[in-house]
Predict the 3D structure of the following.
Amino acid sequence: MIYLITALDAEARPLCDRYKLKRSNALPYTLYTGENTVLLVSGMGKTNAAMAVSALLGWRLPSPGDILINMGICGAPVNYPIGDALLIHQIIDGDRHYYPDILYAHSLAETSLICVDIPQSSPQEYPVDMESAGIFQAASKFFKLHQIGFLKIVSDHCAPDTVTKEGVIRLIASHLDTLDYVSGLLTDVQTDHALFSQSEREEIDSFKSHFTKSQGDMLEDALCFARLKNSDFSLDLFPSSLPNSKRERGILLENLITRLTL
């Protein structure tokens, strides 16, 4: 299942046409469903986005192989051409930073994104939107970080008054193939069990059992990254014994993840 999240109806319209989605009244939000796709229009703002995504994922719980993509427009500094598609690797929300895991090679421009509270009329250091932090916070309660993607299309150079409904529709429609591309990459990564043999999977699960769930998820992401980067990668780097101290085990895991993701 592919979960698509947009903030605006105009962003959703080309997606509904592409994937032949039909309106659903299952939630008190604008919702469209199809054979293998669910599309939610969250409304503008972090709070609205977090509430809407939480309602969606509580209504239809994701399965291990599912993915979630937030596609929408963003304002950006002038060095980002209008119409460019950006894949987001960091979301900045004040002092908070969120990191969707990108465990695959791709041909898109990759950047950070600042999530703001109001439309911006002056350029920021990075592109800006108003929903990404709320979407990430809600989605990360249900998905692993490598199951979540943020695809943003530059609509303006921090001149929100120039953005029109028709312009948004054209921009999103021009990147439907880009969305299919990102969706395919994310879906391929979800076949992580196929990346490892049965004996390797048992070894991984045994090693993960010594850590918290969040630590285990981080290790799993790092292992998938290492195997995708190098198919000959071996699990021999797992230590034969672990320290008794929780703090020392945490340090060991941090060092291991660093080695895996270099």
About this structure: The CA atoms of residues 204 and 220 lie 8 Å apart. The mean pLDDT is 92. The longest strand covers residues 67-75. The chain has two domains: 2-189, 193-261.
